[in-house]
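Quick start: read one record
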Amino acid sequence: MKLPLNMLAHMRAATRNLMGGSPAAATEAIQKALSAAGLAPQATATQAPPAQTMRDINPPPAAAPAQARAEQPQAAAAPETPAAPPTPAQAAQDFAQDFMARLGVPAGLGQHSFDMPSFELPNFHPPGFNAPAATPADIPAGAQFIDGVYRNHAGTRSYKLYIPSSYHGQAMPLIVMLHGCTQNPDDFAAGTQMNTLAEEKECFVVYPAQTQGANSSRCWNWFNAIDQQRDQGEPSLIAGIARQVIDEYPVNEREVFVAGLSAGGAMAVIVGTLYPDLFAAVGVHSGLPFASAQDLPSALAAMKGGAMPNAQRKAPEGGVPIIVFHGDRDTTVNPRNGDELIAQGVRSQAGGKAARAASIDGSVPNGHRYTRTTHSQADGSPLGEHWVIHGAGHAWSGGSGSGSYTDGKGPDASREMLRFFKTVS
C-alpha cells in the first residue's frame, strides 16, 4: 500500500498533538490523514453505515460478555428505538477513534501511554495477533527452561533461559532471542525450535520478555529515540540480561549473539550495533535497519515503504557480522528493509566497503525457493549473509507450527543462523 505524503504529514501532526496532550486535535489530524489515504468513512442519505466497533488489541476476558448481559437483564425485553444515522462528522470521529485505538492509543492519554504496536494496513495484523498459544514443549531429561528477572535504571524485564541437557559445567555459547509483537518466550522458543538446536549445538538460549506495560502489543520499542542509545532504555535491559547470564553461567564470551523477529529483529540490530563489545554477530528475521524510525509516522513509513538509503542514518563504525532473512511477499515489513539492512550492516564493518558479494539460488523440497547472497572480505572472512525467501510472508522461515508466525516451507533460519554464528566467532 503506497502512503500519500500528505497522509504522513497529518500523522506527524497527530503525533505532536498526542505528545502535547491534545486528543481532540490529534483526532482532527488523523481524520485528515485518513481522508488523504482514501480511508475516511462515507455516509449516504439512504443507508446508515454499519456501527463502528472498537477493536481492542487487548480484548476483555471471555467472561466479560456474560457479565455484561447479567448486568442488563431487562434490556432485551424493551423495544429498541432505531438509532439515528450518524452524520459524516460523527462517522469520521468514530473512525478516527477506532484508528487510534488500534494503534494502542487510549482516548485522553498523552505521551506516557503512547506506544506503537506492529501493524498491517488496512487490516492491522501484527505478528502473533490472534495466533494460537504455543503448545508447551517437552523438555529433555536433564535440560532446564527456567525463569529469571533483570532490573536496572530503565526498568525490569523477565526472561527464560534454556540450559540444554548436554551442559555439564563447560563453557558454551549464548544466543539472545528477541520475540516479535504479541509473542512471548515460550511461543518464540516453540516456533523457532531454537531450544532443540541448543541440545544439538550445545549452547545457552535466553529469551527476554517484553512487558505489556512497556508496549500494549508487547513489541520491542525499536522506534523510540531513548531505545536507540547505549545504556539507555530497552537496549540496556537486553544487554543486562545477557551479562547476568554470563555472570551466572560459564558462557564463552567470544560467542554471544543476538537475534530476533520483526520488532525483535529491529531491536536485535539496535542492540548488536550499540554493544559490539558484547555481541559477536546479529541475526535478523523480517526486521528493519538501525535507527530507521524516530516516531510513529517514520515507523509506519519504514515498515510499509521500506527504509530507503539515508546518509544521515549511519550505523556506528565497528559493526559486527550480520545474517538477514526476509520473505519477498512480506506485507507487514517491506522487503526493501532487508536490502538496506544488509547493506548497512556490511558497510559498518572494517573492510565492508570493499566486500565481495556472491549469490546462489536454491529451494526447499516441496517448499520455497530462495536466494542467498554472501558478503565477505578479500580473504574470505564473512561479513554478512542475506537470504530472500521467495513467496514467503512475515513469518520465521523453517519454523514449527507449534509457535505463532512461522513458515515451515522455508529454509531453516534458526539452523542457518547458528551455522553463521559459528563461522564468525
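The longest strand covers residues 251-261.
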